[in-house]
Every structure is written in C-alpha cells, then in structure tokens.
Hints:
The structure holds two protein chains of two kinds. Among the domains of chain A are: 2-37; 75-225, MetI-like fold (Orthogonal Bundle). Helix content of chain A is 79%, strand content 3%. Chain A has helices at residues 2-43, 69-100, 104-118, 122-137, 141-166, 170-178, 183-213, 225-236, 239-271, and strands spanning 58-61, 64-67. Chain A has a two-stranded antiparallel ribbon with strand order 1-2. In chain A, strand 1 (58-61) and strand 2 (64-67) form a beta hairpin. In chain A, helix 2 packs antiparallel against helix 3 (104-118). The mean pLDDT of chain A is 86. Chain B is mostly helical. Chain B has a domain at 61-251: MetI-like fold. Helix content of chain B is 75%, strand content 2%. A two-stranded antiparallel ribbon of chain B has the order 1-2. In chain B, strand 1 and strand 2 (59-61) form a beta hairpin. Chain B starts with 11 loop residues before the first helix and ends with a helix.
Amino acid sequence: xxxxxxxxxxYWKVSQQSRVVATLQYLVFMASLVWVVVHGANQMxxxxxxxxxxxxxxxxxxxxxxxxRLIKGLGVTVDLTLWCVGFxxxxxxxxxxxRMSDSISGRWLSTIYLELVRNTPLLVQLYLFYFVFSPIFxxxxxxxGVICLTFYEGSFVAxxxxxxxxxxxxxxxxAGDSIGLTRWDxxxxxxxxxxxxxxxxxxxGQIINLIKHSSIVSVIxxxxxxxxxxxxxxDTFMSFEIWFTVAGIYLVLTLSLSMFVTWLExxxxxxx
Amino acid sequence: xxxxxxxxxxxxxxFAVISSVVGxxxxxxxxxxxxxxxxxxxxxxxxxxxxxxxxxxxxVSNLLLEGxxxxxxxxxxxxxxxxxxxVVMGLCRISSNLFLRMVARSYVELVRNTPPLVFIFIFYFxxxxxxxxxxxxxxxxxxxxPAVKTMIWILCxxxxxxxxFVSGLICLSIFEGAYITEIVRAxxxxxxxxxxxAGRAIGLSxxxxxxxxxxxxxxxxxxxxxxxxxITLIKDSSIVSLISIQELTFMAVEVxxxxxxxxxxxxxxxxxxxxxxxxxxxxxxxxxxxxxxSKR
Lengths: 272, 296
C-alpha cells in the first residue's frame, strides 16, 4: 500500500511539474506573439495611445458620469440582441410547429424558409433586407437589422426546437396518448417539460451566435458596438487599441455566456 | 412521434398559411407598384453576368460572373488551407502535451467568440501591414517571370488583384480553421477508446496508432461536417467583401451603385448564392447516400 502511495505521489508531482512547465511555455509563447505585434506596430511608427481609451467607456462631466461611445454602442448591441432573442424564439417556434404539423402548405413554407436562409450568406440577406424590403415596408435601420437577424437565426432556433421535441422518446408520446391526453395536453405535460432541458444549452449557444452576428449590422450603419468602433477609428486612427478593446468586449460577453452553457450542460447531464 | 406516420392533409392551418402568404405577396406587389413606383428592368442587370459581344459574336463574362468565380476560388482554396489548419490544430487539441492543447484551445476560443466582422477587420489590418510584406506576395504578383504570371492567372485570376485575393483567402482560412479544428477533434474523439488500446496492445507507437487505426476511421466521421463547412465557407466568403476583396458580394455592391437597379441586383445575387449552395447540398447528400449504400 505504501509503495503504491509513493508511486502515486511521484506521479502527482511529475504531472504537477509538467503542468507548470506547459503553462510557462504557453505564457512565453503568448508573450512572444504580443511582442511580435507590438514590435511590428512600432516599426510602422505606430503611436500607442491606450491612455485615450477610458474616455470611450465613460466621461466625467461636472461630477457626473456619462457613458462613453463604446458603452453606448454596447447598449445598442445588447438592445438589438434582446429584441432578436424574443422574435427569434417566436419565429423558431412557429417554424418548428409548422414543420411538424400535418398541413402540407405549412411544411412547404417552413422548408422553403429554412432552405432559403441556410443557402444564402447573412451579408447578402442583410443587403436584401436593407435595400429591398426596408424601402418596401418603410422600416428604419435598427428594425431592419432586428428583422434580418431574426430571419437568419430563426432558422437555427427552429431546428433546435424541432430536434428537442423529437428527441423525446416515442414511448412518451404513446404513453400520453394511451392515458387519454389530448394532443395539446400531451405537448404541455409530457413533451415540453422533457424537451426544454435538452434545448436550453443549444439555445444559449444560439444567443452567443446572435451577439456575434449582430456586429454585421454595422454594415448598414446601425450604431452598435462595431459601428462605434469603426467611427472612433475613423476619427482618431487608433486602430489597434480600439479593435482590441471592441474584440475584448465581445469576448467578455460571449465567453461568459459560453461558460454558462457549459455549466448548463453539466447540470442537465447530472440530472438525467 | 406518432403523428408523423399520418399522411399530410389540408386543414385549417393550410388556409391560414396560404392566405397570409398570398396577402403578404399582394401587399408587397402593391407597395412596389403604387407607393415606390419601381419599374423593374431585368435587362439592365443580366448583362452584368454575361453579355454577347457584338463585334466578336462571343459571350463575355462580366463583373457578377467574375465575382462568382472569385467566390468559388476563395471557397475551394479556403477549404483546403483551413482543413490543413484544422487537422494540425485538431491534433494539438487532443495531444498529450498540455502546452499544445492550450495553444489550440486559445486559437479556437478566440476565433469562435469574436464576431466574424471584428475578426476580419483586426486580422486584415495585421495582414496588410505586417504579414503580406513578410510573405512577399506583392513581389510575387509583380514578378516578370512568365511562368509565375501564368500560374497566377490560372489559379487566382488577374495578377493585379493577387495580393488582394491572397489576403482575403488567409483571413477566411484562419477563421474557418477554428471550426474545422473542432470538427477534427470531435471526429477523432468519436472513435472508441478500445481502438486506441487495441493499437497499443499490438505494439504500435502512438503516432502509428493515429495514422493506421484512428485517422482512417475518423475520416468518414469528419467528411460530412467538413462538406457542410464548405457550404458555410461559400457563405462566409461574402464577409471579406467588406475588406474590398472583389468577390460576388463586393461586385454586387458595385453594380448596384453604378446601375441603381438595386432590387434586381440583390435578388439576382441572392439567387446565385442560393443556386450554388443548394446544388452543393444536393451533391453532398447524393455522395453521402452513395457512401452509405456502398458500406452496406
């Protein structure tokens, strides 16, 4: 027993050591990458102005704090994302229901919608909405962005919902049927409660995608985070600082959500 | 699901769906005709795909078709380069070396968690200022040697746009590489542990197990999502139009501005993308069915 323990201890020591070594290697590697970037920028005669960045986060004027341009842009991004999440769930739900329904035209419509969205680029869809549909319906830029992103993400959500519902076992449906539940009750009491834990992690993943894809509305000049970043760069030429800051803000948003997804996945796995 | 077996039939949902779709279409047509007073003129737009040269009597490709060709080139070369990146990084992702795992993980997470637009802008900035001079792409494009020139013509089109093309290609490949890394990792990890153990048991080294046992099996798992990624790549390539790579979307913006036939141009371009992507989908599905049949 004691021998085993010793071996175990030695193993632990070695793996601990290799972990430290690997972390050191990693840090050196990352530092050298950063050095390459900084060195390259310096050789171009780039002037780093990190001290100018905080004013784009907040401004203090007469003792009061005002949000800076990046924070305002972030607000628009979050606003856009939240509207889209709501509409996307609705679109996805309707599409999924139509796809699973008995109706012929419903299936056709949802299939056409899904194939159209899947086989054209988001950017082309955005241009199509901005140049073609928004003049037809007289919608402003922000809502064009919301509708376009909803149209795009709705297709993914529809598939998530459909696969979530269909992953509930056949026997569950049959059991519900045999105890005399109506179709609606079957959905409500048997299927939906089981499907939701399955759907939650991919749905959260879709929200991450939504945040990422929302940056594309900067093409039609909706004042979101990316647009603000581009405008500030156009004013001040601080390309590196601003782009890194913008990317950092997006990273914080998406990484924290994806950690949430991992947590959700672990939790559902434990429960089932 | 039980009700799937039932034959679809017309019911009240159909009436709701059909009437709302028809209503929507009538509304659109009315708005376009009466309020916007838009006069459709498709004849202005089609010559930008291809037109008949009166002097020589031959069909000549124009901006949109050339853009489409560049898009396809970006997609084909892009999938090759990003597959290489993906395989290397995917192997790093599952390697026993913690350092390699950390590097690959950082690459994947960084690329996947920044918006494509922001990634392309940042990366293009580096590329144009630092990486391109280092690779000597510009000198290559300007070289006088006829062999190099014909190579560039055949592979990438006009040498004037060569460095432009290459920078778009590198941006896209590094971007898609992160997604392919995950595909490769998932493909390799889907092979049961027993295969590894069996390989080791008959005395193969780790690399040999990978090469002769695991990878041949993983390839069949990796192929379908990789084909899917190719279609995604065609679609994502539209984003590099924002850094002035002259592919289909870029050309569409140009044509739309110069002819002011905006409705027709964008509908036509969307249809072009749809036809390309959907035919790829059908082709890959056919391949997959054939592969499944031959396996049986």
